[in-house]
Amino acid sequence: MGADRELSDGVRAGAYAGYSRTRFDVDSRASSGHSNNYHLGLYGAGQRDALALRGGVGYSWHRIESERNVGFGGYRDRLTGDYDGNTLQAFTELGYRLRYEAASVEPFVNLSYVRLHTDAVQEQGGAAALSVKDETMNTFYSTLGLRGATDIPVSGVDVTLHGKLGWQHAYGDTDTSARMAFASGDSFTSKGAPVDKDVAVVGVGLDVPLTRSTRIGVSYQGQYGSQQQANSVNAQLTVSF
To answer: Which EC number(s) does UniProt give (predicted)?
Structure first.
């Protein structure tokens, strides 16, 4: 949920709040979990002729629950963890929009910063329970890309089709690891899948006006790298006052 307003000619600013739920499964480690996420943020944008400048900052709180199953020989154990985390994000973007009748194309460059922190966690269960130290990652991203949109008349209604294609590069903390220990042993480092330094960013979506002040949209966002892939589908209802 969010709201924004025009501050002056071509300049808008707004704020948002939201909730999301994320589920993750790591089959190779027989582990799974979910995160309840709460979001707050501010954003702004300015347009001068074809040139656009945008920026924003957001903060998210995460409540994470995990489950891990251990089995070897005749030993079986189910281990659970419950911990908190937070994410700080900030970005700025410069674009130049070119219009062609009912269509537009915009080359853009985006710079962003992400700080992810997870608290320490003590797993509950048997002898295989782990104690994991808190971790913080600071990563910067640059994205160079092209987005476009066009209006398609359908039964007297202008449906907007939009898409995006870009290249994203990561700097800073790109290796994921956690310092942990068993209750009766020395600590050790477990490495996870690294953040891809170079990924292709793609997106496509459709917006349909329901009334003069209400729009509904559905979109797909994807990131494709050599180590990881991320895919999401979103639905959005926008009401203007």
So the answer is: 3.4.21.-
